[in-house]
Design brief:
Elements lengths: L1 H22 L6 H29 L6 H28 L4 H9 L1 H71 L5 H17 L6 E2 H16 L6 H4 E6 L8 E2 L5 H10 L8 E7 L5 E8 L14 H13 L4 E6 L4 E8 L3
Parallel strand pairs: 2-4
Antiparallel strand pairs: 1-3, 4-5, 5-7, 6-7
Protein name: Histidine kinase
Keywords: Kinase, Membrane, Transferase, Transmembrane, Transmembrane helix
Pfam families: His_kinase
């Protein structure tokens, strides 16, 4: 804004020099106009910055409009005589006495353009000040919104992790109470999952390959609690997942859907849970989870889910605004959730 004001002053002086040079038939304009322009620029800058630094912060910023109008009038009452006086002083060194007397007789006539010039200076100062304050406020607001977004996402992650741990510890407790030999392996799988949650999920995004590996560890942990043909009880198919780290995804984003299937599904059915992950050539990600529901739990069909799914919806709104589709359907005796993510 300050640079723009300097550009305005230089542009105004350049126009005056050009017009004076054309009207004086080659006389050296800088010897006549430079002192006057410097004084006028100093007076204009004084008005500009008094309005900028004093009037607006102490009146308009406090909704004191009448005080601001009175301040502008007072500023003009000081500026116009000083402006006319500077013009008179510089003219006295370069113009004949007759021209001086003529200028003195026309003070009233010269006061009108000087008043208009003063108002234009105040208008520019006010416009620059308001624009600068607005841009600063917008930056502060965006930063505040970003901080609030990060805080909300952190709280949602904090809600996801205890929710997951609660269910997993219940599973391990069930194995331990049965004195199952698979309890130590369950603890090992939980340690792997915890390592991912501690060291990976704090990042904004993680490679999809790491998220898939995390899901496989979770599924291995679930298989330990299933009797009999556990491998056939859980189906996890992936298609188009790049082997490198080029495709990124928010951490712990897919887990609530998988966890919800084991929480509310009929694990005695075969297959109990079917999970499919596909990355399309246009980088759209499709993720679906289907599980059977026991007849006594048929009331759960079509329900949006518990805390985990509610938090997931909110995270999707924050991380993938208008770039996701989350659909919950209820085929006969089943519960299916489909998630589609689009890159920005």
């Amino acid at each position: 804004m300050h640079v723009l004001w300097v550009v305005v002053l230089i542009g105004t002086d350049a126009v005056q020099l050009f017009s004076w040079h054309n009207g004086q038939n080659g006389l050296a304009p800088w010897t006549q106009l430079v002192p006057r322009m410097l004084m006028n620029d100093a007076l204009a800058s004084l008005v500009f910055y008094i309005n900028w630094a004093v009037l607006i912060p102490r009146t308009l910023a406090r909704s004191r409009v009448l005080a601001y109008v009175l301040g502008v009038c007072g500023l003009l009452l000081v500026f116009v005589p000083l402006r006319m006086g500077s013009s008179y002083v510089t003219r006295s060194t370069t113009e004949p006495q007759s021209e001086q007397s003529k200028a003195e007789r026309n003070w009233a006539m010269f006061s009108v353009p000087y008043t208009i010039f003063g108002l234009m200076t105040i208008f520019l100062s006010s416009g620059f000040k308001v624009t600068g304050d607005y841009m600063r406020e917008q930056r502060n607001r965006r930063e505040l919104e970003r901080q609030q977004l990060l805080t909300e996402l952190s709280l949602l992650k904090m809600q996801v992790n205890p929710h997951f741990l609660f269910n997993t510890l219940n599973n391990i407790y069930s194995l331990a109470s049965q004195k199952s030999d698979r309890a130590p392996e369950a603890v090992l799988r939980l340690a792997e999952i915890m390592r991912y949650m501690l060291y990976e999920s704090n990042a904004d995004t993680v490679p999809l390959t790491k998220e898939v590996a995390h899901l496989r560890s979770f599924l291995d942990l679930q298989r330990l609690r299933l009797p009999g043909n556990a491998p056939e009880a859980i189906v996890f198919d992936t298609t188009g997942v790049p082997p490198d780290t080029s495709y990124a995804i928010a951490p712990m984003l897919l887990m609530p859907l998988v966890e919800n299937a084991f929480k509310h599904g009929d694990l005695s059915a075969r297959p109990a849970v079917v999970i499919r992950l596909q990355v399309m050539p246009d980088n759209q990600l499709h993720f679906s989870v289907r599980n059977h529901v026991a007849p006594e739990d048929s009331r759960l069909l079509g329900q949006p889910g518990g805390v985990g799914l509610t938090n997931l919806r909110r995270r999707l709104e924050l991380l993938y605004p208008k770039r996701y589709v989350l659909a919950v359907t209820s085929p006969e005796g089943q519960h299916q959730v489909d998630l589609t993510l689009r890159e920005a």
